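protien #1 (seq + structre)
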Amino acid sequence: MENRFEFDEKRMLSNLIEMIKIDSESGSEGPMTDWLMDWFSSRGFDAVRDKAGSTCGSSGDNVIVHIPGTMEGEAIAFNAHQDTVKPGVGIVPVIEGRRMYSGGNTILGADDKSGIAILLEILENLKEKDIPHRELWYIFTIGEEVGMYGAKALDPAMLPCKSFFHLDDAEGPGIVRPMGPGAVKMRCDFTGRAAHAGIEPEKGISAVMMMGEAFTRMPMGRIDEETTSNIGVIGGGEATNIVAEHAWFTAEARSRNAAKLQKQSDDVRKACEEAAARYGGKADFKVEPTYPPYVPDDNWFVIRCLMDAYEKEGITPRYIPAGGGGDCNILCGKGYECTGISTGMYNCHTTNEYLDLDEWAACYRVVMRVMTDGYK
């Protein structure tokens, strides 16, 4: 059964390049969803397109595929996302040596189409070589890059298993995320009183000044080793000759500690309300949870199975806490046990993104082991 680790790199690259050339920025995943549905249906696999797009205004939907098992063992699911960040239109993939880059002023889209391509190539090999494998589920989500909307819309009844492998980690195989942050979005709208700035400014209450005062009171940036916070967008005012009646900002907070996450949002709220009170205005502060913290358990099957695969492949695990969120956070919040696998992609979310093809191949072997080894 060792021929299971031999794969058609030319075919895997061809699929990846074809997918990368499909524009699928978040919210516009429709062509990518269509491509996946055609790929699976042309090979006789049972693929379902759900209605996730209707929940977030996307042209695409989650694609869920069930592959019945041909060996004993716990059923497992694999996840990768269809969408890319911007700029992701008109990508031209270029291969130089053993790396793939974008040939233009765009991201590459290896995040996360490199994960999808691995899963497709493995499926081709399982079928062609009649390789015994566990019962498998694939889910290709939408909207991951802008809020994990596909994972949030996922109906657990469509995926009756408990263990998930998430092919969306950067760098080479071996990275293990012992924890990942939860996050919240924050927005505050300040209301003051308009007045003519040249004739009677003393009759006005500047919402912009309130907001500026609030910024000086609130902790931002690196709060501690587990917690960060950032002001992202600000706005307000009508004209330079009008004391601003309205101003607003949006911000986020992230922490791997739920109590610290709550404290940070409380501190920002307090700063806004105190600043508004000082000027005699109002502050309408809102907090929206984005995703929960991600804290895997070493006793989970997915962790034990992955460690076994790494050992057999001679890969030394590297434990690096996550700083961002992903579908893993949402899936764990829905009751699944989930861990990530790195696919060999680097500099994600930038125009310097690239894919290391050797590490991509190593990821293929790790995933194949997870699917086909008799680990219990």
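ok now protien #2
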Amino acid sequence: MVKFSDIKGFIFDLDGVITDTSVYHTEAWHQLADKVGTPWTQDLEDGLKGISRMDSLNMILDAGGVSNNYTEEEKVSLANEKNDRYLSLVNKMTPDNILPGIKEFLDSLVSNGYSISLASASKNSPTVLSKLGLTKYFSNVVDPASLTNGKPDPEIYQKGAQILDLKPEQCIGIEDAESGIESINGAGETSVGIGSRDTLKDADILFATTKDLTLDNIKKAMN
């Protein structure tokens, strides 16, 4: 069992952990689903959490039974259209959109000498971090374009540790989605889930909200 004293680095997901851009993703994907004629359901909305743009698009097209109606080129165009819509919403973000307790948690990690990286499937992470005023904390960001597989595959969290020059067992990954927790666990890291035990049943440590995310609380949970 990994001890708290073994931990040297923290690897963050973005959506639902640092800020809640999922509402913007949902709005943009919902509009696209309407355009292609796929009925919007709660199951579909939940299924899109934490996965890449093209995987999300294919899930929407499959759900509507319209995958064969579009060429690969047209699919890329649809994904770009969704992204433009999403970015127009993201551009209105400010530091007020940082989730409760996250800025304080990041400050405590820096002052205690922990390494920090970002493991988000979103290609727009740098834009979002900039809008939130958090770029200085994340000099280490996994490039989604360098990934072969999306979450729940462990690759993104493995790379999150590699860019910090740390072993997986020295890292804690923080996620709000089931696919993300699976990715952290698969990478051999300690998983911290933000949300409910119903959804994140495999998380090593669970907090109801980001406000509970403190070094002291993690230490208590691990020891």
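Residues 28 and 82 are 6 Å apart (CA to CA).
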